[in-house]
Amino acid sequence: MSHDHDSPKAHRPAGAGEPHAFMAHHFNTPGQQAGAAKFGMWVFLATEILMFSGLFLAYFIVRMHYPDMVLAAHEHLNKTAGGINTVVLITSSLTMALAVRAAQVGDQPAIKRNLLLTIGFAFTFMVVKYFEYTAKIEHGMLPGKFYHAWDHGYYIEGSPHIFFAVYFCMTGLHGFHVLIGIGVLTWIYLRAGKGHFGPSYYTPVENVGLYWHLVDLIWIFLFPLLYLVR
């Protein structure tokens, strides 16, 4: 009995080219698979935006009810560290875009080089954030009942523990996304080392790039709202 109907070719319309090695059997063409994957990524990114939108709403509510406290508390954030991390993430978005382009044209060394640079920038971001968080913890500028900055000679009028609760929630969640990004970028880098990506198949690189650009975009909003508020 013939089982040709179970083969990948049986699921492709006449005249379709040979699929790439990672084409799933339930898609008719590589383009269909790539489109479905990209649509799924955009839906996921939409849910991410909704999640962060709740935190942005919380920030604006706090700022509306405690404007003077927010202005006073933000002066204790390290603007230099925030600025460095902004430059780092914007540059990482450039290297990520270059990695996607390299995958599209099949430049294997450039794929790996730019992915490695992006991973390096992500680690740099986390190192800077580590030192920034360490300073806040040492100075007692913590959320809620853990706030005790007055014991270290810092007095902020109002309810600064609310501001720092919002600060740690927003930047902490963003930092968690950076860590996830490091993980998926490393996975893509290892696959690139095996030559998995090229002109006929670069969807994973492109989708990880979309995720990383969202991480960058969210920080571009966080930095001025938290560090440069006036």
Descriptive notes:
- 70% of the residues lie in helices and 0% in strands.
- The protein is mainly α and 230 residues long.
- The protein has a single domain, classed as Four Helix Bundle (Hemerythrin (Met), subunit A) (Up-down Bundle), CATH 1.20.120.80.
- The longest helix has 36 residues, at 30-65.
Give a brief description.
It contains six helices and no strands.
Task: Summarize the SSE layout with pairings.
Layout: H1 30-65, H2 67-74, H3 79-105, H4 108-138, H5 160-193, H6 203-227
Helix pairs in contact: 1-2, 1-5, 1-6, 3-4, 3-6, 4-5, 5-6
Q: What's the main sheet like? A: none
Mean pLDDT reading: 86
Computed CA radius of gyration, to the nearest angstrom = 23 Å
Overall SS class: mainly alpha
Sum up the structure in keywords.
230 residues; mainly alpha; Four Helix Bundle (Hemerythrin (Met), subunit A); 70% helix
